[in-house]
Amino acid sequence: MSIPKQLKPRLICKSSSEYFPVETYRFQGSDGGLLDIEYEAIFPKDKIVKRPPGMWRYREALPFPVEAEPVSFGEGFTPMPRVNVHGHGIFLKQEQLFPSGSYKDRGATLLVSHAKRIGVQHCVEDSSGNAGSAIAAYCARAGITCDIYLPASTSPAKIAQISAYGARLRLIPGSREATADAVMNAATSSYYASHVWNPFFFHGTKTFAYEIWEQLGFRAPDAVVLPVGNGTLLIGTAIGFEELLKAGEIEKLPKIFGVQAELCAPLLGSEPSKTDRIEVTPSQQTIAEGIAVARPPRGQQILEVLRRCNGRVLCVGENEIIASLRHMCRQGFFIEPTSAATLAAIPKVFRDKAWQSEYREPIVVSLCSGHGLKASEKVAEISQTRPV
Ligand SMILES: Cc1ncc(COP(=O)(O)O)c(C=O)c1O
After folding, report:
1. What's the 227 CA to ligand 1 centre distance in angstroms?
2. Whose CA is closest to atom 16 on ligand 1?
3. What are the extents of the domains in the chain?
């Protein structure tokens, strides 16, 4: 099969309509707008299936030169067993099995590969823990130094992991937003390897969609259930399926359900079909620390994506998260509370009859997003107490 000639990827700031070469160190447009990558993904299946089972098998769909060497541990192509989650049969991607223990490695391998290619020697990143661990791991592999900004309340295992990789820790008192504000100063003078601002990150997470497509026998599922904090997996997954649709590889987009914790649910009040506005709602501390993002910078983009995918936001309470964690651990899935939050929403997905009427037995895919070892003390505490 002959491969069509691809256009060179470039960065675009949609709010100011500016274009930048991908080699730039800037992370926003001149009006402070968010950057995206303009790129045409192609899927030469005959080549893809002959490559090792990892996310770099989709080389022609990634904005990184096909001939260049990525910074990689051979990650991806995570198993996708069929599992009974709260009484419903779904496919469950084992994203906790990535080298640093969460799906964030999908974004980190592409972002750090790109950073290395353009000559970055030092970078900064802010995170609730897992994106910081992923960036620190790949920077260690690439020989790039990094400073990782974290809320001081981050799970001790994540702090220990980041420090072990040799990253410099910057622990910030207060909320996740206080940490995001603190990194901004540093980001003006260092490369900002942000999983939120840097679009290379979600062009890595989009491989989650490609793998589902391939593992289902080159077809799309009916629905995907994802966590939403900053939306890096949700935006990436939607881009991935939209690229497959555009390339004629699937016939329609799956419905996307985004899951938030009731105690921090800025997207819940903003039903995607009705508004572009993100509700600024008071938020409280939740055990699902990975999705505790009260002001997601890409909030509007998340709503646009959900609208295009006929999606919805669902919320789960702390007791539902705890029950879900116990349920999953008792089946052998050792996951962190944030992962359990996503799976706590599965009964609500199946209770929503409106979308299911079209399908006899809908194909639903979700994931274990982070490993239990990331928050082992919390998991132990929850699993040893009696259910409420
Ligand atoms: C385990 C886990 N799951 C889900 C998320 C949600 O992330 P996002 O919405 O930014 O993709 C995070 C973010 O840190 C996480 O650590």
Report:
1. 6
2. 290
3. 10-56, 82-102+202-384, 104-199
Cα 99 to ligand 1 centre (Å): 16
Contact call for residues 162 and 132 (beta carbons, < 8 A): yes
Same fold, 82-102+202-384 and 104-199: yes
Distance from Cα 47 to the centre of ligand 1, integer Å: 31
pTM over 0.90: yes
Nearest CA to ligand 1 atom 3: 369
Task: In whole angstroms, give the CA distance from residue 298 to residue 231.
Answer: 7
What string of pLDDT tens digits covers the 388 residues of the chain? 444 556 789 999 989 999 999 999 999 999 999 999 999 999 999 999 999 999 999 999 999 999 999 999 999 999 999 999 999 999 999 999 999 999 999 999 999 999 999 999 999 999 989 999 999 999 999 999 999 999 999 989 999 999 999 999 999 998 888 898 999 989 999 999 999 999 999 999 999 999 999 999 999 999 999 999 999 999 999 999 999 999 999 999 999 999 999 999 999 876 665 556 666 666 788 999 889 888 899 999 999 999 999 999 999 999 999 999 999 999 999 999 999 999 999 999 999 888 887 667 899 999 999 999 999 989 988 887 765 5
Look at ligand 1, atom 15, and give the residue with the nearest C-alpha.
290
51 backbone dihedrals φ, ψ, rounded to 5° = -90, 160
Which residues form ligand 1's pocket by a CB distance below 6 Å?
102, 128, 130-131, 227-233, 290-291, 336, 338-339, 369-370
Task: Report residue 189: phi and psi, to 5°.
Answer: -120, -5
Contacts of 158 (CB under 8 A, 6+ apart): 129, 130, 132, 133, 150, 374, 375
DSSP three-state, residue 58: helix
Q: Is 226 helix (H, G, I), strand (E, B) or coil?
A: strand
Q: Which of 267, 275, 260 is nearest to 297 (CA)?
A: 267
Query: 104-199 has which CATH code?
Result: 3.40.50.1100
Instruction: Fold for 82-102+202-384, please state it.
Output: Rossmann fold (3.40.50)
